[in-house]
Amino acid sequence: GAGVSQSPSNKVTEKGKDVELRCDPISGHTALYWYRQSLGQGLEFLIYFQGNSAPDKSGLPSDRFSAERTGGSVSTLTIQRTQQEDSAVYLCASSPRTTQPQHFGDGTRLSIL
Amino acid sequence: DAKTTQPNSMESNEEEPVHLPCNHSTISGTDYIHWYRQLPSQGPEYVIHGLTSNVNNRMASLAIAEDRKSSTLILHRATLRDAAVYYCILRSDSGYALNFGKGTSLLVTP
What we know:
Chain A is mainly β. Chain A contains no helices and 10 strands.
């Protein structure tokens, strides 16, 4: 079946521009997560959505980062006024319920020039 | 969150068994032991998880020490496609964010 889909797979943009990253979770999965992975580093949790509950935004590194999840399905991560330190691979994951294993997409590789 | 300790890298020959160790001496009673792996240029992939008893699935086996302070992921017959970074993660019953450390980079040679 279809897995977690992320787009674009690669994004190159200039410093100061805004970017939007998209995640299509597996159908029926109520939990959705965003992480980022910098070169040679482990994954850093960013934000978590569960059903209609308020998202846990505790991992967002600054107010330039925001995310939404429309209709309990597709999610968009937005980074405003990008900085070079935002360069990383942004990964999305979903799971049927919070306690179950997470299924990851292949990520969006973001490069800020 | 309780932390895990893994070797930075390991090497195995193709078609040989591989035992990937993980120490988690500060594990709490409600922490599950999860293993994920990440192949180059891909997102992490769930491998297996357990609480107290040893677990088997089509990908691997998980052996958990009786005191739960360590565990071992066992790949019964390594293939070249098993070359990846393997992460051992503790996840509480109520937690959701996965805390990935540096993991073990497994090299499989023909």
